């Protein structure tokens, strides 16, 4: 069934007209039916009373003839009824119940036997009447009269036809009136509804509906207009404050980026500028050691070597700072990279530059990550170097890299069998210059994981770690789905 | 011969008892007599009498049948029966049935009855032509009656028109 024909999809107009017409049809039907019933009853009563009068007169006339058993006279009396066409049968009985005289139409049967009294009143198509003939209070005989009801039936048929014709005419008039009147109710509502829809679709809050009258519809229209007015006003205020907010944000952003740039330039230049005096210290330290070796005693030589070691460490620190500042401000070139291949290269470099401790590295092949190639390389170089470094005390160094994808995001896990760390210091792990081990145990600048954190953050990802002391550590790098498309 | 008569008598009585509606001539005439009283209105002073006195003058042809009328009500009055031997004795009668034996004295009887405002009824042939008011006649097996309206008016009696309609002959 089409939705069009279901009640809930009917337009308000149709519903109003339908309701009005249903009620009026019901009313007209009820009125017509009750009129017909009343008319039928009235007509029957009239007919009954006419026949009663007729039979009364007949009874009065035939009393004497009955007493004197004069059938001829009785026949004369009742033959006067022949003129009334609807009379079907008239019978006159004496006290013994014998038929004294009868008048039959062509179709009717003989007079009924009074031993079984005939049904009287309106039965079927006939009205039957059995009346005693009395004289001075004595019953001297019975009068039986049977009348056809065709006139009554014809009259009622005509009446029904008339009633329904008039009812139909009234109904047609009511259809017209209902169509005119429903506009009073449905038009303001449909205007209101279309205005509301227009506002919902176009977000045009300047629309107003016309207000008719002071009734509920008028009040609804007024309330609607006021509501839209309030919304329009508030909308304007919201838009104005949004614009202001955007301006403020833009101002702040530009201030912030200026400050950021200044800070980065500062740290870059500081790092860069620090290098020169450091090179001088290192250069002259080396020169001092080479050229004046003989003039220094062992204590002097020890101090000198400490100075040189410190300069090397400081150089590392400055390099680390430079890398950190570079990954912070460098523009990113986002594209897809084979992370497994990058990791293999890094492992080869680590093999080449470190001790010959037996090492087992497993890297899950085919890990693909979207991001800036150089930054990813820096981050994973740091992570693998850490794993390499902190597992250097194990008998066999074991490093395992695996990745798992879920809902578009990729999490890369780097697991080692190194010394691990205490989880209560996990918050300090990714903060610059914070170290969980002394330089004597493991060398380092304290900038590596801070750099990793910065790189991953610039890829909108997150990095976190799990570990326990002497049980190895596992670092997780999670790249979000939004970047990995 | 006697046996046949006996059988016929038995059969006849059997039929008579089985069919009660077959009535004898005098039963019908007695019923008519009673019915006549219901359609006649007497004038003053006879109308004031408490009873309606039916007198049978001369030989009574009804036998026991007429006794059934004794005490019956007609127009609110009880019927009483009387058998006067002379006209003088019939002074207070409202209805006077004249027996066939009195046919020779008819003029004097009717004149006397008219003066006393009586309804005269008789089965004497041409009774109404002789001045009587209602006379029985037999038409084949059916009992009918004739009315002398002039005589009735002279006696101050009003006869219901329904009764007149039924009369075989009305002398106006």
From TrEMBL, chain A:
One Pfam family matching this protein: HATPase_c
PROSITE patterns assigned: HAMP (PS50885), HIS_KIN (PS50109)
Keywords, alphabetical: ATP-binding, Kinase, Membrane, Nucleotide-binding, Phosphoprotein, Transferase, Transmembrane, Transmembrane helix
Residue ranges of every copy of the HAMP domain listed in the record: 183-236
Signal peptide (from-to): none
EC numbers for this chain: 2.7.13.3
GO molecular function: ATP binding
Catalytic function, reaction form: ATP + protein L-histidine = ADP + protein N-phospho-L-histidine
Subcellular location: Membrane
Gene3D superfamilies: 1.10.287.130, 6.10.340.10, Histidine kinase-like ATPase, C-terminal domain
Chain ranges passing through the membrane: 16-38, 158-179
Domain of life assignment: Bacteria
InterPro entries: BphY/WalK/GraS-like (IPR050351), CHASE8 (IPR033417), HAMP_dom (IPR003660), HATPase_C_sf (IPR036890), HATPase_dom (IPR003594), His_kinase_dom (IPR005467), HisK_dim/P_dom (IPR003661), HisK_dim/P_sf (IPR036097)
Domain Histidine kinase: 269-483
The name this protein goes by in its record: histidine kinase
TrEMBL record, chain B:
Top-level taxon of origin: Bacteria
Gene3D superfamilies the UniProt entry points to: 3.40.50.2300
Signal peptide from the UniProt entry: 1-20
Keywords: Signal
Protein known as: YfiR family protein
Keyword Signal: yes
Origin species: Marinobacter qingdaonensis
InterPro entries in UniProt: YfiR/HmsC-like
């Amino acid at each position: 069934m089409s939705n069009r024909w279901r009640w809930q999809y009917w337009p308000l107009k149709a519903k109003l007209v339908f309701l009005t017409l249903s009620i009026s049809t019901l009313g007209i039907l009820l009125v017509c039916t009750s009129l017909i019933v009343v008319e039928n009853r009235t007509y029957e009563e009239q007919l009954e009373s006419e026949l009663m009068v007729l039979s009364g007169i007949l009874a009065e006339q035939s009393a004497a003839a009955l007493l004197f058993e004069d059938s001829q006279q009785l026949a004369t009396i009742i033959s006067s009824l022949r003129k009334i066409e609807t009379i079907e049968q008239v019978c006159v009985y004496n006290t013994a119940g014998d038929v004294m005289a009868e008048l039959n139409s062509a179709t009717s049967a003989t007079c009924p036997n009074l031993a079984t009294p005939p049904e009287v009143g309106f039965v079927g198509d006939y009205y039957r009447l059995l009346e005693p003939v009395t004289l001075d209070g004595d019953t001297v005989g019975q009068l039986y009269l049977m009348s056809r009801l065709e006139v009554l039936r014809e009259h009622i048929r005509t009446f029904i036809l008339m009633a329904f014709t008039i009812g139909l005419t009234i109904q047609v008039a009511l259809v017209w009136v209902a169509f005119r009147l429903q506009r009073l109710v449905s038009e303001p509502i449909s205007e209101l509804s279309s205005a509301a829809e227009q506002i919902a679709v176009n977000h045009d809050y300047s629309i107003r509906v016309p207000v008719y009258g002071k009734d509920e519809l008028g009040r609804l229209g007024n309330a609607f207009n006021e509501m839209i007015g309030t919304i329009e006003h508030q909308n304007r205020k919201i838009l104005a404050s949004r614009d202001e907010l955007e301006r403020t944000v833009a101002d702040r952003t530009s201030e912030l980026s200026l400050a950021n740039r200044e800070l980065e330039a500062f740290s870059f230049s500081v790092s860069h500028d620090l290098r020169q005096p450091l090179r001088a210290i290192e250069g002259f330290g080396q020169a001092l050691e080479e050229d004046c070796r003989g003039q220094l005693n062992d204590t002097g030589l020890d101090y000198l070597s400490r100075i040189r070691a410190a300069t090397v460490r400081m150089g590392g620190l400055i390099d680390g700072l430079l890398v950190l500042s570079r990954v912070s401000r460098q523009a990113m070139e986002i594209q897809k990279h084979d992370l497994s291949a990058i990791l293999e290269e890094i492992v080869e470099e680590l093999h080449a530059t470190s001790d010959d401790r037996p090492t087992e590295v497993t890297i899950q092949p085919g890990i693909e990550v979207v991001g800036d190639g150089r930054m990813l390389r820096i981050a994973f170089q740091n992570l693998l170097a850490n794993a390499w470094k902190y597992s250097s005390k194990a008998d066999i160094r074991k490093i395992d890299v695996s990745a798992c994808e879920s809902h578009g995001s990729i999490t890369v896990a780097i697991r080692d069998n190194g010394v691990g760390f205490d989880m209560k210091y996990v918050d300090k792990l990714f903060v610059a210059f914070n170290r969980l081990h002394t330089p004597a145990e493991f060398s380092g600048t304290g900038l590596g994981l801070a750099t990793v954190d910065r790189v991953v953050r610039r890829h909108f990802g997150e990095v976190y770690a799990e570990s326990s002391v002497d049980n190895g550590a596992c670092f997780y790098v999670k790249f979000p789905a939004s970047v990995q498309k | 011969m006697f046996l046949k008569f006996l059988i016929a008598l038995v059969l006849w009585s059997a039929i008579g008892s089985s069919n009660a509606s077959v009535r004898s001539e005098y039963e019908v005439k007695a019923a008519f007599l009673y019915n006549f009283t219901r359609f006649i209105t007497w004038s003053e002073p006879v109308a004031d009498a408490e009873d309606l006195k039916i007198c049978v003058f001369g030989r009574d042809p009804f036998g026991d049948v007429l006794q059934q009328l004794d005490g019956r009500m007609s127009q609110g009055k009880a019927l009483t029966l009387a058998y006067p031997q002379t006209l003088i004795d019939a002074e207070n009668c409202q209805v006077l049935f004249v027996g066939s034996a009195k046919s020779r004295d008819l003029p004097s009887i009717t004149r006397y009855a008219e003066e006393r405002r009586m309804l005269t009824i008789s089965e004497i042939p041409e009774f109404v032509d002789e001045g009587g008011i209602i006379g029985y006649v037999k038409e084949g097996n059916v009992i009918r009656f004739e009315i002398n309206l002039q005589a009735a008016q002279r006696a101050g009696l009003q006869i219901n028109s329904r009764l007149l309609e039924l009369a075989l002959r009305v002398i106006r």
